[in-house]
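USER: Note each token:
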Amino acid sequence: MRRQRRTALVALVVAVALLVPLTATAASGTWSELLPTSGDVVVPAGTEVVLDTDVDLEGLRIDGTVRCGSQKVEIRARWILVNGRFECGTADEPYRRRLTIVLTGPGTGNFNGYGDKYLVVAAGGELLLHGKSRRTWTTLAEPARPGDTKIVLAKPLGTVGDWIALAPTNYRLEQAEAARIAVKDGAVLTLEAPLGEEHWCGEDAYAGRTLVECAEVGLLTHKIQIKGDPGSDTAGLGGHAMFLEGSTVHIEGVLFRRMGQQGALGRYPVHWHMAANSEGSIVRSAVWESYNRFVTIHGTHGIEVRRVVGFETLGHGFYLEDGGETGNQILCNLAIAVRGAPDPVTPSDIDAAGFWISNPDNVVEGNRAAGADFAGFWLGFPEHPRGLSSTNAVWPRRTPLLSFRRNQAHTVGFAGLYVDGGEAQNRSVVTTWYEPREDPSDPDSDQVVPEIRGFTAWKSQHYGAWIRTFAGVEMSNARFADNWRSLYLANIPSGPDNGNVGVVTDSLFVGTSSNHGTPESWERVDVNGHMVPQHWDTDAPLGGIAFYDGPMRVADSVFADFTSNATRDAGALSALFPNPFSISVRNEAEAITFVRSKRVLFPDIGGGRLGDNGTMFIDLDGSVTGTAGAVVTVRQSLLDDGDCTTKGAWNAATCPGSYARMFITREDGGDLDADVVRDDGRSVFLASEQGWQSTIALNGRAGRAYTVDPSGSNPSGWSFWGDEIPAGGAIVIAVPAPTGSWTVEIWGPNRGSVASRAALDSGTAGWFYDSATGLLYLRFTSAARGGIAE
């Protein structure tokens, strides 16, 4: 070891000695004329070197300028630090030869503070790598099946000898694969070896709307390559590239392979690190076989990441690290085969997403996530940026969404789009509600409803999209197909009777498309041979819209092929079930078209769950039920009665009248499991599952009365909140009076007590105590709330 160090020092001294006169005279020439091809080498400031020979170095520091020559060359080095300029081709005259940079070594050292096996561009440094501009990805034009050696693309891609990646199109990302081109005839490629998996391509039409499910095909081969040595695979310690503040980076037509260092913070294939405003820096390349992400933007603004193909990585693919990154453009990129990290850099990497967006103030358009363990696009906004970007002056969770358009996800384990699960300060993932405001620093400023345009999600094992917001959402021109549930909006308004609504318009929902899939021997299928989203639960029903929380409105949309069969049930308009949480009575449907579909599928009410007992929506124009204004409710609940019409196949009823919600909480913090009896004798058991804030929801016809009979001992006090009660409507709640002395407080009109139940029903006061039964009756309208306490 001592001899090796001495040899390296001698080489470094020789290199520096050779370069001293060059620095003074601002010399220029070829590498073979001016510099050694081994050891540690420094290119001094003022020196311009043309790279004309292969070099095998310990380390390389570029303070001057290195340019590629007219022949193919290879640089092998343990580390490369660019303080000056490293240029290979220009935007106008791309480099057409071959440049290979191999980052060598075990990956366990630390050189200049940047670790091991690195290419770092420091302040003032320029990395200008312009390979030939080529189409980086397209899609299939026809299905490709196992055993095929010929594929047809939508557009020409690659050339003979190039490697391509084919995306999975069923439910498992393991069906992604790489192939090599043997013959090219326009958009028709002949491969060197037969395909091992199915890669679907098909177009289905439904009532004037189309669904396209086609495998993406990404180009992996470029003549400029930056890669870890073959030994990188052993421990997942590849090379890494880092670009610092004050650097200029243009990368186009470059392959990064065997890059990233598994489980190591800050060691990524392509990484802008705390580079502040880096407007003008771009990357348009490919990342193949990464051990830690594809592209990371950390503490950096103004980057353009365009048409990058990422194939096979651990942890999130395209990654905004701290939540303070803004003004970046993430455009038309493709992420294939994004797996959860066994040794995660952050907790969320266990559930990896193709795109992790931690600040909404970025442009995210035209991207594809084709195979990810958890989500295609994960919009997880922290309250404030974490890590090195920590500041209380930035509020990602309250920042308006700049642009999220024309993105597509498929073959994901949980959701194509997941808007939830932001990071806490310790980077643990917590449930979050997105509530953008006009002034993010002012929580009382006007809310800004986020807009999501042209999103497509198919082949998700759970949800096409899961969106949790306090501000509602506007989603339009969406396409959902072959998901367990197409769309889940956990839209919770920030106050009583808040007007913000989750709105979905001009969209298409498909239960089962023509993409039946090719299952493995252990995967179960339905009776028609169609792969199901959850192979472990073949009879799990398919649903389109999953009404939940609310309010939510779906309009001008088509639902197709939500058809029940002998294997599993299905319904176009459905609900999250089982659902322990209360649900809005302002959920609505309008201008709905059905194609070969069961229109509604509601849950059973067994188990006392609040949402299961309260599921409903209003058919505004009769396009669902045939009766404008009809309310579709779950059966045998506190919602339906003798005025309703039973819809047995839907597990629902259609009813007239209006509805409201009532929240009731025990003041002693205990659970509130209770039998709730309506004034016509209908009794339903409701159980709270919300810990100390044991809230139950009562949805009923205007003017109805309910008696709450809690299990076990009576509470020491009650709190009440009436919500979504229509104008002119009222609900009367009867509860056992607390033992001993007690007081009643009702805020709003008619807050006083009366001497009879009849007087209460007339609306002249707010509450009545029946000493004979020990029941307290409270009358609530949209403006009245209150409680009872000892």
Q: What stands out?
A: The first strand starts at residue 28 and ends at 30.
